[in-house]
Known about the structure:
Layout: E1 8-13, H1 29-35, H2 40-48, E2 58-64, E3 67-73, E4 80-83, H3 102-117, H4 129-134, E5 157-162, E6 168-173, E7 183-184
Antiparallel strand pairs: 1-2, 2-3, 3-4, 5-6, 6-7
Amino acid sequence: ALSRRGVLAAVLNRKDSLGPAPGRRSRGELPLLALAQDSARAAVSALLALDGAEWRPFNLVLADAAGAWFLRGLGAGALEAWPFTPGVHMITAHDPDDPDSPRIARHLPRFRAAMAEALPGPVPDWGGWPALLADASGPPETAINIPPRFGFATVSAALMALRRDGTAVWRFAAGPPDRAEFRAVA
Length: 186
Protein backbone atom coordinates (compact mmCIF):
# COMPACT_ATOMS: atom_id res chain seq x y z
CA ALA A 1 0.00 0.00 0.00
CA LEU A 2 1.17 3.55 -0.72
CA SER A 3 -0.37 6.69 0.73
CA ARG A 4 -0.58 10.06 -0.98
CA ARG A 5 1.71 11.30 1.81
CA GLY A 6 4.49 8.98 0.61
CA VAL A 7 4.20 6.27 3.25
CA LEU A 8 4.72 2.76 1.93
CA ALA A 9 3.64 -0.42 3.75
CA ALA A 10 4.00 -4.05 2.66
CA VAL A 11 3.01 -7.16 4.63
CA LEU A 12 4.18 -10.74 4.19
CA ASN A 13 3.23 -13.96 5.95
CA ARG A 14 5.89 -15.56 8.11
CA LYS A 15 6.96 -19.16 7.58
CA ASP A 16 4.23 -21.78 8.04
CA SER A 17 1.43 -19.23 8.54
CA LEU A 18 -0.41 -19.10 5.20
CA GLY A 19 -4.09 -18.32 5.11
CA PRO A 20 -6.62 -16.98 7.59
CA ALA A 21 -7.24 -18.39 11.06
CA PRO A 22 -10.45 -18.34 13.08
CA GLY A 23 -10.44 -15.58 15.67
CA ARG A 24 -7.55 -13.70 14.06
CA ARG A 25 -7.69 -10.45 12.12
CA SER A 26 -6.56 -10.30 8.49
CA ARG A 27 -2.90 -9.33 8.05
CA GLY A 28 -3.98 -7.41 4.95
CA GLU A 29 -5.45 -4.83 7.32
CA LEU A 30 -2.00 -3.93 8.73
CA PRO A 31 -0.80 -1.78 5.79
CA LEU A 32 -4.11 0.11 5.88
CA LEU A 33 -3.71 0.79 9.60
CA ALA A 34 -0.16 1.99 8.93
CA LEU A 35 -1.22 4.35 6.14
CA ALA A 36 -3.68 6.08 8.46
CA GLN A 37 -0.57 7.74 9.93
CA ASP A 38 1.29 10.76 8.52
CA SER A 39 4.73 9.13 8.48
CA ALA A 40 6.40 5.74 8.64
CA ARG A 41 7.78 6.57 12.10
CA ALA A 42 4.25 7.40 13.34
CA ALA A 43 2.97 4.17 11.76
CA VAL A 44 5.62 2.16 13.62
CA SER A 45 4.56 3.76 16.92
CA ALA A 46 0.87 3.15 16.23
CA LEU A 47 1.36 -0.48 15.26
CA LEU A 48 3.65 -1.23 18.22
CA ALA A 49 0.73 -0.27 20.48
CA LEU A 50 -1.38 -3.14 19.04
CA ASP A 51 -1.67 -6.65 20.47
CA GLY A 52 0.38 -8.98 18.26
CA ALA A 53 -1.83 -11.93 19.23
CA GLU A 54 -4.65 -10.50 17.08
CA TRP A 55 -2.88 -11.64 13.87
CA ARG A 56 -1.12 -14.73 12.61
CA PRO A 57 2.66 -14.22 12.25
CA PHE A 58 3.72 -11.52 9.78
CA ASN A 59 6.56 -9.36 8.52
CA LEU A 60 5.83 -5.72 7.71
CA VAL A 61 7.96 -3.13 5.96
CA LEU A 62 7.20 0.57 6.51
CA ALA A 63 9.03 3.36 4.69
CA ASP A 64 8.88 7.00 3.74
CA ALA A 65 11.46 9.53 2.56
CA ALA A 66 12.85 9.78 6.12
CA GLY A 67 13.57 6.08 6.66
CA ALA A 68 12.44 2.47 6.64
CA TRP A 69 11.52 -0.01 9.38
CA PHE A 70 10.86 -3.72 9.74
CA LEU A 71 8.09 -4.93 12.07
CA ARG A 72 7.70 -8.53 13.12
CA GLY A 73 4.62 -10.12 14.63
CA LEU A 74 5.04 -13.66 15.88
CA GLY A 75 1.35 -14.34 16.58
CA ALA A 76 1.70 -13.77 20.33
CA GLY A 77 3.14 -11.07 22.53
CA ALA A 78 4.31 -7.62 21.55
CA LEU A 79 5.26 -6.63 18.02
CA GLU A 80 8.93 -5.90 17.42
CA ALA A 81 10.43 -3.19 15.21
CA TRP A 82 13.83 -2.02 14.09
CA PRO A 83 15.08 0.44 11.47
CA PHE A 84 16.76 -0.68 8.27
CA THR A 85 20.28 0.51 7.66
CA PRO A 86 20.90 2.19 4.28
CA GLY A 87 21.34 -0.29 1.46
CA VAL A 88 19.59 -3.18 -0.23
CA HIS A 89 17.69 -5.60 2.02
CA MET A 90 15.48 -8.58 1.28
CA ILE A 91 12.46 -9.82 3.21
CA THR A 92 10.71 -13.15 2.77
CA ALA A 93 8.80 -15.24 5.31
CA HIS A 94 11.98 -15.00 7.41
CA ASP A 95 13.68 -12.04 9.08
CA PRO A 96 15.40 -9.47 6.84
CA ASP A 97 18.54 -10.68 5.07
CA ASP A 98 18.28 -14.09 6.80
CA PRO A 99 20.72 -16.45 5.03
CA ASP A 100 18.61 -19.41 6.27
CA SER A 101 15.94 -18.33 3.77
CA PRO A 102 16.74 -20.12 0.50
CA ARG A 103 15.37 -17.18 -1.52
CA ILE A 104 17.46 -14.64 0.36
CA ALA A 105 20.60 -16.79 0.16
CA ARG A 106 20.19 -17.09 -3.61
CA HIS A 107 18.88 -13.67 -4.59
CA LEU A 108 20.06 -10.99 -2.14
CA PRO A 109 23.60 -10.94 -3.62
CA ARG A 110 22.06 -10.74 -7.10
CA PHE A 111 19.81 -7.78 -6.16
CA ARG A 112 22.73 -5.97 -4.50
CA ALA A 113 24.94 -6.49 -7.56
CA ALA A 114 22.17 -5.36 -9.93
CA MET A 115 21.55 -2.19 -7.87
CA ALA A 116 25.27 -1.40 -7.81
CA GLU A 117 25.12 -1.37 -11.63
CA ALA A 118 22.10 0.98 -11.73
CA LEU A 119 22.70 4.60 -12.51
CA PRO A 120 22.00 7.20 -9.82
CA GLY A 121 19.58 9.98 -10.68
CA PRO A 122 16.21 11.56 -9.98
CA VAL A 123 14.34 8.72 -11.70
CA PRO A 124 15.18 5.25 -10.39
CA ASP A 125 17.12 3.06 -12.77
CA TRP A 126 16.15 -0.41 -11.63
CA GLY A 127 19.19 -1.97 -13.27
CA GLY A 128 18.70 -5.72 -13.49
CA TRP A 129 15.87 -5.89 -10.94
CA PRO A 130 13.02 -6.42 -13.45
CA ALA A 131 14.91 -9.38 -14.94
CA LEU A 132 15.56 -10.80 -11.47
CA LEU A 133 11.87 -10.50 -10.58
CA ALA A 134 11.02 -12.33 -13.82
CA ASP A 135 13.42 -15.21 -13.07
CA ALA A 136 11.42 -18.44 -12.66
CA SER A 137 14.48 -20.69 -12.65
CA GLY A 138 15.64 -22.88 -9.82
CA PRO A 139 13.75 -25.02 -7.36
CA PRO A 140 10.44 -23.65 -5.99
CA GLU A 141 11.93 -22.79 -2.58
CA THR A 142 14.41 -20.39 -4.22
CA ALA A 143 12.26 -18.97 -7.04
CA ILE A 144 11.36 -15.29 -7.05
CA ASN A 145 8.80 -15.64 -9.85
CA ILE A 146 6.97 -18.70 -8.55
CA PRO A 147 5.27 -20.88 -11.17
CA PRO A 148 1.80 -22.27 -10.32
CA ARG A 149 2.13 -24.98 -7.68
CA PHE A 150 -0.31 -26.18 -5.01
CA GLY A 151 -2.63 -23.24 -5.68
CA PHE A 152 0.07 -20.58 -5.23
CA ALA A 153 2.01 -18.59 -7.82
CA THR A 154 3.40 -15.17 -8.55
CA VAL A 155 0.45 -13.20 -9.94
CA SER A 156 1.99 -9.71 -10.14
CA ALA A 157 5.12 -7.74 -9.28
CA ALA A 158 5.91 -4.17 -8.27
CA LEU A 159 8.91 -1.87 -8.15
CA MET A 160 8.52 1.13 -5.83
CA ALA A 161 10.91 3.90 -4.88
CA LEU A 162 10.47 6.90 -2.61
CA ARG A 163 12.39 10.01 -3.60
CA ARG A 164 13.88 12.24 -0.91
CA ASP A 165 11.05 14.75 -1.48
CA GLY A 166 8.50 12.03 -0.61
CA THR A 167 7.14 11.46 -4.11
CA ALA A 168 6.88 7.87 -5.24
CA VAL A 169 7.86 6.05 -8.40
CA TRP A 170 5.80 2.90 -8.91
CA ARG A 171 6.05 0.31 -11.68
CA PHE A 172 3.58 -2.60 -11.73
CA ALA A 173 3.44 -5.84 -13.73
CA ALA A 174 -0.19 -7.03 -13.79
CA GLY A 175 0.82 -10.67 -14.13
CA PRO A 176 3.90 -12.82 -13.64
CA PRO A 177 6.81 -10.50 -14.51
CA ASP A 178 8.21 -12.90 -17.11
CA ARG A 179 4.98 -12.37 -19.09
CA ALA A 180 3.70 -8.94 -18.03
CA GLU A 181 5.49 -5.66 -18.69
CA PHE A 182 6.24 -3.26 -15.83
CA ARG A 183 4.16 -0.11 -16.39
CA ALA A 184 4.09 3.20 -14.54
CA VAL A 185 1.35 3.72 -11.95
CA ALA A 186 0.23 7.32 -11.39
